Amino acid sequence: MAGLSDYLIWRGDITFDEVPLNVIDALLLSQLSYVDFRGIIGGAEEKKECTLEQASGRYWETHTEKELEKCVSFALRTAGVLLREMAQTKRFSGLVLRNYVNRIDMTAQEQFAALEIVLGKRESFISYCGTDDSLVGWKEDFNMCFLSPVPAQTDAKFYLEQVLSDGGRKVYIGGHSKGGNLAVYASVTCKKAFQRNILRVFNFDGPGFNRDFIESIRYQEMKGLIETWVPESSVVGMLLEHEEDYHVVKSKQIGILQHDVTSWEVLGAGFIMLPSVKQSSIRLAAGVKEWMRGLQPEELESFCDRMYEVLTATEAKTLADLNKDRLKSATSIIHSFGSIDKKTKDMLFTLVKAILVPGKKAELPKKKVVKKEKKELLPADGRK
Prior knowledge:
The chain is an alpha/beta fold. The protein has helices at 4-11, 23-31, 52-62, 65-69, 74-87, 90-93, 135-143, 151-164, 178-189, 192-195, 211-214, 217-222, 279-293, 297-312, 319-324, 326-336, 342-356; strands at 49-51, 96-105, 110-120, 123-128, 170-176, 198-204, 226-231, 246-249, 266-267, 270-271, 273-274. Residues 358-384 have low confidence and may be disordered.
């Protein structure tokens, strides 16, 4: 079962001038925005840039694998390791990284990071970071249920327009998880004059949008450039609304752990494909959508606020904080459930379990079945 590391060994000695970008390259470049490049690469106003190889060397001077293993987030655990492996290849080592931004705003409830990777020939890849392990990052994801745009989406659009203002540059855009959502949002909403410079948009298991957004003329015009890739047991990527076709990837993991892209199986310059996602993923996504449609926007906002209150009742700021003392976290969370009505409590419990215990299968609260009095289903003569 080949993965991303195997691809780097197989294709690593061939430059982008020789063989152009493919979907595996796009996934690898999408992971780079998870790496904490603060102090290594600056923003546009600082005019700092360096090669991928240089960035890897500087990163590993101050980080260790032991440190990364403590990260709760799949992507944060693996992005630094992938960076080092990419730095050892001819294909990726000389790529220039620049225009790195990393912003966490507790007041605005925003977590946003992005990176430009220069491929050469006036082409770049714009990599949008997905949700890190900060609780405020997860809160912004919750806010997508009732608020459009969220601050990260607005910043994603602004960031793309800044890069494309450097006249004539063509770009690929991509991201994993929330980063995939940001990639789609930025490409759809940026100035029309810039859209002709967009070559392709890659959404790797990112959530969708509300119905108004995907029915908009601008989304319909860009839909043909959007590629969405999800694993067989996708949860995150099946949430909210999608209209573009999506491709299903085989993973060596199970359940929500398939959100970890290092588990996706690679064959040559592509993925091992499957005909469809699992029925359990479709049912879970459909159940969440049905539940959401039954609520008013203010009710959804109230629910998301309660979700955030439940998680921060532990005084944690990150998922790693929650996992430092699971007993204490669980006690605080259970205590905070006390004054919540049962219907809300059941949904909160389902989502908290999905976040804190990623190996467990997330099941929606079962509806109560009201037993009805038995009736004769067939006519007296036995005909159906």
